[in-house]
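Problem: given the chain below (284 residues), write out its structure.
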Amino acid sequence: MLKTTSLLLATAMSTLSFLGIVSAAAAGQASYVVDVHSGQVLEATNQDELNFPASLTKMMTLYLVFEALHQGRLKWDQKLTMSENAESKEPFKFAVGAGRKVTVREAVEGIIVLSANDAAVAIGEQLAGSEDSFGKMMTEKAHRIGMSKTVFKNPSGLPDPEQVTTAHDMATLGVALMRDFPEEFKLFSMRGMKFRGMKLRGHNNLMYRYAGANGIKTGYTDASGYNLVTSATKNGRSVVGVVMGEKTAEIRDDKMADLLDTYLKPAATTATVTTGAPKQTSAN
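Solution.
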């Protein structure tokens, strides 16, 4: 009886521990806007609250790809083999089949335009041997560039209760991509791609509707809500904006457009810094 009670207690404690991890991040609304050149914070609401990044994770995957290309550890025309693990990643993927190959360039474009999970995993496995090892590499790089609250567990952003970030950290990553890889960053402005005879359209809808937007990445899971990082330039100012935890893609995009309108006005009418009071997050 004592052994059974101990087992039940251990199971309950394990469950509570797991729930504690989950409750550390939820789809809490957050926003952040920073001036790329001056570093001035223009908007900061719940900017340090933990949230799930979803496919915003792929921004760090691409940061490490660009770094590897510069260091000669990858080449644009290099072939990547899709493992069974990579092929299994739903819902967005190239779906070429396990054992088939894509080039690094195809993988990068697929991640940017389609948010291709299989391409992200193939890259992670190529650079680190496994998703877990790549997650550790991603986290280490994140901390080095100032993303102090971020933990990455996989290259795709598919759900993991321990994979967390903040709006502030994602803006830091956006600025780092622009600063460290200015030529490669231009790829984030792609609105579509051709893949083996098919014309494929991206789903970053703000790129189609907002003049001055030139990247970066959307993200969504049930746990994260609708996330978006956007870079935009207008009236002589460049900003990176982050919106996280919105209820729908439309609300997310509208909120980002409103933020960009506010902070990309001509200098004489630009609004002052806004800081929202942090709010408590809770598990869904």
